[in-house]
């Protein structure tokens, strides 16, 4: 390791002249001194993300009005009321041609719904999103959605907000972890500015982008999300985006039915995810450059839109009407079935658009239909189809994305239905269960997994951060005297006693104070004269740990110093060695955790 890297480690100049420069482990802190600075930057990113969301919504409205109504207006309009007749087929196809050209000659990364691409940059590119994506992604999405693409605006807005955060992180001098936080802050701001859902936006960032739940990252993301929500409230008001009539608190039987609704919707989520990637594989098999795939997908979108105009465009009004109980029966089944066909083919074609709104539409429709069936089959349960729609909306997104907490809170925030919290928990948990059991990857991670990469799926407390050095270190310690010659030590080692088999030895002076550590390789190096004393062979002050340090702190110090063993010294008397911690000791501690989990599994009768 370079000297500059070592200089960044804590030292202990006050521990006495013999131990000046002692290398100590870093104390792990929940919040570092730079977190307030990153939080301040995140607030700016949040405001910028909210502004970008408003611009994108304005662009979508403008293009929708131009493409379907031939008027210059930016009001958010549904394409469903167009009078184009069969000409409506050409509008999404034309949008697909433009998006394909932008992807080929601008940036291929604009294809898709944006969240997997942002995840990939976080995991494998130090959260560096190319600056041009900041402009090309929202523009391509506005064109795709404005020309009738059956997508939500939230996916591109989340991707654009993330790109803004990444761009700011690239312009400033920040670490890769801080840049990731700014990217997640921008993404959360985009979602919060779209739906007015600040808490679920933070949870979505945690579950799909941060891959951690730490104060250092959650604080900036939360502030960015809150800022974006405040900007949205000032511009568009603070009402629920999917307002529902008051819903009664359900009884036990109704909650059981809602859990069953979630289970069935979770199975639907598995089918939807597989359908999307089956369509993508089908497009990949075509003897045609991928640039033209969005145009082919656009033709299908137009054909479906000719039969069912409400499948065109964002469709937030559809979601509100479904959860409000305004669309029912055959009309609801037709809308949701055709929306699924249109969206799966359009997304599989590689155009630019989001997944959240289509999933919410399909899930709400499935939940409402299941709820309506339950009212006839078990009328005594007191099931409300509108409540079932809210549950289905969240459960489908849970099963497809595995963003469990974000889904539950999102449905609550966007409907403001407090009585739905219990049904949401009861419905989303089974959806997550069947998704995890039947699919290795989610709709967000399948694309990344197909490229041979793995995405974290579980966020657990670091086991090594829970075990102290004193509980894992080896004792007793075999030390060597500083005044001994190399010849004497080699004779001792040649005797092949059990104490001579270690790979490293602390060297102490006449008073038993630690001077340094010599490895077996140092002691057996034939290029070193045997007349030299061990004190003369010590090249640098030792790296040490205290008994109350954690194994994570010790492992970090080993990695930074490039060593495999650390003397354990007392805090009150830092020169006194009381143990030795090696890489094998750390692995043995971790193995104990695995053995405990294995025994628990056997006790439950699992294979």
If you average the pLDDT, what whole number results?
87
CATH class of the largest domain: Mainly Alpha
Rg estimate, integer Å: 30 Å
* Shape verdict: elongated
Percent helix: 55-70%
Q: Main β-sheet: number of strands, strand sense, barrel status? A: 3 strands, mixed
Total number of helical segments?
Answer: 23
Q: What structural class should be given to the helix and strand makeup? A: mainly alpha
Total number of beta strands: 7
Secondary-structure element order, N to C: HEEHHHHHHHHHHHHHHHHHEHEEHHHEEH
- Write out the CATH superfamily name of the largest domain: Clc chloride channel
CATH domain topology of the largest domain: Clc chloride channel
Question: What's the short version?
Answer:
This protein has helices spanning 3-7, 35-69, 90-105, 115-124, 133-146, 154-171, 176-195, 198-210, 215-236, 252-284, 293-307, 316-323, 329-348, 356-377, 385-401, 404-415, 421-438, 446-449, 486-494, 520-524, 534-537, 551-561, 583-603; strands spanning 11-12, 22-23, 480-481, 504-508, 514-519, 565-569, 577-582.
Features:
607 residues; mainly alpha; Clc chloride channel; CBS-domain; 3 domains; three-stranded mixed beta sheet; two-stranded antiparallel sheet; 23 helices; 7 strands; elongated; disordered N terminus
């Amino acid at each position: 390791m370079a000297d500059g890297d070592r200089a960044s480690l804590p030292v202990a100049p006050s521990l006495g002249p013999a131990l000046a420069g002692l290398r100590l482990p870093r104390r792990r802190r929940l919040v570092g001194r730079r977190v307030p600075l990153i939080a301040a930057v995140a607030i700016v990113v949040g405001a910028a993300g909210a502004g970008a969301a408003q611009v994108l919504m304005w662009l979508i409205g403008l293009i929708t009005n131009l493409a379907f109504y031939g008027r210059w207006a930016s009001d958010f309009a549904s394409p469903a009321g167009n009078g184009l007749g069969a000409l409506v087929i050409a509008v999404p196809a034309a949008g697909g041609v433009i998006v394909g050209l932008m992807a080929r000659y601008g940036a291929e990364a604009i294809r898709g719904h944006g969240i997997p691409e942002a995840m990939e940059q976080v995991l494998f590119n130090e959260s560096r999103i190319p600056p041009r994506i900041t402009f090309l992604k929202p523009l391509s999405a506005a064109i795709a959605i404005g020309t009738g693409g059956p997508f939500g605006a939230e996916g591109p807005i989340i991707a654009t907000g993330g790109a803004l955060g990444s761009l700011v992180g690239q312009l400033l001098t920040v670490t890769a972890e801080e840049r990731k936080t700014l990217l997640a802050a921008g993404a959360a701001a985009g979602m919060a500015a779209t739906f007015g859902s600040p808490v679920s936006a933070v949870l979505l960032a945690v579950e799909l982008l941060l891959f951690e739940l730490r104060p250092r990252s959650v604080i900036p993301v939360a502030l960015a999300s809150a800022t974006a929500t405040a900007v949205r409230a000032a511009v568009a008001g603070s009402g629920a985006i999917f307002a529902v009539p008051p819903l009664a608190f359900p009884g036990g039987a109704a909650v059981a039915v809602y859990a069953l609704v979630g289970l069935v919707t979770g199975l639907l989520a598995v089918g939807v995810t597989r359908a999307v990637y089956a369509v993508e594989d089908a497009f990949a098999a075509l003897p045609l450059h991928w640039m033209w795939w969005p145009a082919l997908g656009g033709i299908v979108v137009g054909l479906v839109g000719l039969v069912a105009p409400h499948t065109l465009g964002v469709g937030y009004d559809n979601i509100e009407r479904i959860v409000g109980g305004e669309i029912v029966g055959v009309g609801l089944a037709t809308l949701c079935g055709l929306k699924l066909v249109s969206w799966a083919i359009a997304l599989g074609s590689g155009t630019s658009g989001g997944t959240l709104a289509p999933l919410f539409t399909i899930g709400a429709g499935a939940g409402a239909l299941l709820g309506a069936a339950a009212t006839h089959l078990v009328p005594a349960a007191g099931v409300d189809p509108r409540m079932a729609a809210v549950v289905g909306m969240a459960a489908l997104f849970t099963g497809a994305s595995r963003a469990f907490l974000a889904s539950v809170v999102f449905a609550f925030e966007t409907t403001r239905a407090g009585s739905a919290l219990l049904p949401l928990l009861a419905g989303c948990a089974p959806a997550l269960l069947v998704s995890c059991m039947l699919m290795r990857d989610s709709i967000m991670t399948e694309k990344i997994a197909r490229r041979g990469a793995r995405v974290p799926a579980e966020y657990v407390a670091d086991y090594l951060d829970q075990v102290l050095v004193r509980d894992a270190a080896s004792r007793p310690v075999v030390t060597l005297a500083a005044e001994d010659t190399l010849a004497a030590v080699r004779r001792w080692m040649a005797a092949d006693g059990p104490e001579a088999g270690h790979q490293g030895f602390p060297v102490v002076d006449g008073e038993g104070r630690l001077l340094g550590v010599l490895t077996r390789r140092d002691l057996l190096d034939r290029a070193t004269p045997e007349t030299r004393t061990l004190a003369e062979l010590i090249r640098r002050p030792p790296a040490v740990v205290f008994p109350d340090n954690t194994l994570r702190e010790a492992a970090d110090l080993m990695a930074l110093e490039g060593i495999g063993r650390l003397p354990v010294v007392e805090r009150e008397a830092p020169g006194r060695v009381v143990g030795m911690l090696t890489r094998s000791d750390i692995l043995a501690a971790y193995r104990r955790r695995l053995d405990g989990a294995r025994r628990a599994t056997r006790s439950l009768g699992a294979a």
